[in-house]
Design brief:
The protein is of the alpha/beta class. The chain is built from 11 helices and 9 strands. The two termini are 31 Å apart.
C-alpha cells in the first residue's frame, strides 16, 4: 500500500531543526500533507510501505513518553524500521561523547535521526556531523518544531485558518521551547500572539518576538480565539519562580471564570503532560466542546508522519 499524497512535493530543507527559517509555504506543505495522514491513521489498516527499507532512530537524551511514542508510531505507520535508543543504557553513559555516538549511528547508514536533548543547540551540532536527515524533538529551551506544527494543524482543522486569529500563550514561557516554536510559526502564518504569565516566568525582552505581553489572565485572554496553556517546568527551575502551586493556579491557572474573557468559541490547548489543578482546571481540560488537548495528540502522529515523509524524499537533493 502507498500513500495518496502528492509524490512531487519537495521540502526545501535537509533537516527539521526548528520553525525559525521555515517559510509559510514550507509550513503549509507540512500541514497539508499531515491532513492526509490524519485520515490514513483513522483507517483500520493504518500501515503504509512508503518508508520500507528506511531506518529511523529515536535518540532521546531526555525522558519522554508522548513525543517518543508519537515518533515511533509515525515511523512504523510509514513502514520504516524504527529503533528507540535508550541513552540511560547506551555507551554515552560509559563516557562516549555525543559526537562519537552520532558518528557510530552514521556508520550504520541511518536515514533519519530524531533527537531530543536537554541542551539548546545540541541537535543542530549533531546534524552537522551526520549524513542523514535530523529532526529536532526538542532541544533545551530552544525549539520543539513538530509540537508547533501539530498545534497549528489542530487549530487549522478546527478554525479553518491560522491567519488573523488571536492566540494567547499562557504560563511558563521562560522555560518553554513549545512557546518559542509556536510564536515563530504563528507569526509566520499571520496570527496575532499574546503571552501571559508572571514576570518571573517570561523571558526578558520578550517583546522583541513581536508579542503582546500581559501579567493578568483576564486582560490577556480578552477576545482570544485560542488559549494555549503551558506546563510549569519545575525541573528546569533553579530557585523559586512562583510562591506556591495553589497561588499560581489562582492567578494563572485556566478555569471557566478566566476563560469567559476569551471568545465564546475559543479553543483550549496544552502540549502535555498536564499538571491538573495547577495549570488548568481538570473539568475544563476534559470538556470536549472547548478542549482540543486529545486532538493535539492525534495530530502529533500525523504531523510526524508528514515530516518523516518529506525529509526522506530525495535526501541527497534537499537543500542544507
Amino acid at each position: 500500500m502507498s500513500t495518496t499524497a502528492d509524490s512531487s512535493l519537495r521540502f526545501p530543507h535537509r533537516h527539521l531543526l526548528g520553525i525559525e527559517g521555515l517559510s509559510a509555504d514550507a509550513i503549509t506543505m507540512v500541514l497539508d500533507l499531515a491532513d492526509s495522514y490524519v485520515e490514513q491513521s483513522r483507517k483500520p489498516d493504518k500501515k503504509l510501505s512508503l518508508l520500507r527499507g528506511r531506518t529511523v532512530i529515536n535518540l532521546f537524551f531526555e525522558s519522554s513518553t508522548r513525543t517518543r511514542t508519537s515518533f515511533e508510531l509515525a515511523g512504523k505507520r510509514l513502514g520504516a524500521d524504527v529503533i528507540n535508543m535508550s541513552v540511560s543504557t547506551s555507551a554515552i553513559k560509559k563516557g562516549e561523547t555525543v559526537i562519537d555516538t552520532a558518528m557510530t549511528l552514521n556508520a550504520m547508514h541511518t536515514d533519519v535521526l530524531v533527537v531530543r536533548h536537554s541542551d539548546s543547540g545540541a541537535v543542530k551540532l549533531l546534524s552537522e556531523k551526520v549524513n542523514c536527515a535530523v529532526m529536532n524533538a526538542g532541544d533545551g529551551s530552544h525549539e520543539h518544531p513538530t509540537q508547533a506544527l501539530l498545534d497549528a494543524l489542530t487549530i487549522r482543522r478546527r478554525k479553518g485558518r491560522l491567519q488573523g486569529l488571536t492566540v494567547a500563550i499562557c504560563g511558563d514561557v521562560l522555560h518553554s521551547r513549545v512557546a518559542r516554536s509556536n510564536i515563530l510559526l504563528l507569526h509566520t502564518m499571520g496570527a496575532r500572539v499574546r503571552v501571559i504569565g508572571p514576570p518571573t516566568l517570561l523571558p526578558s525582552a520578550i517583546e522583541r518576538f513581536g508579542v503582546e505581553v500581559f501579567h493578568d489572565m483576564r486582560a490577556g485572554l480578552k477576545d482570544c480565539d485560542i488559549v494555549m496553556m503551558l506546563r510549569l517546568q519545575t525541573e528546569r527551575m533553579q530557585g523559586r519562580f512562583v510562591p506556591s502551586p495553589r497561588e499560581y493556579f489562582h492567578y494563572f491557572g485556566l478555569d471557566r471564570e478566566k476563560l469567559a474573557a476569551a471568545r465564546d468559541d475559543a479553543l483550549v490547548m496544552h502540549p502535555g503532560p498536564m499538571n491538573r489543578g495547577i495549570e488548568i482546571d481538570s473539568e475544563l481540560a476534559d470538556d470536549i466542546d472547548r478542549s482540543v488537548i486529545r486532538e493535539q495528540v492525534e495530530m502529533g502522529v500525523a504531523v510526524r508522519m508528514a515530516c518523516l515523509d518529506l525529509l526522506t524524499r530525495d535526501l541527497l537533493g534537499n537543500a542544507p
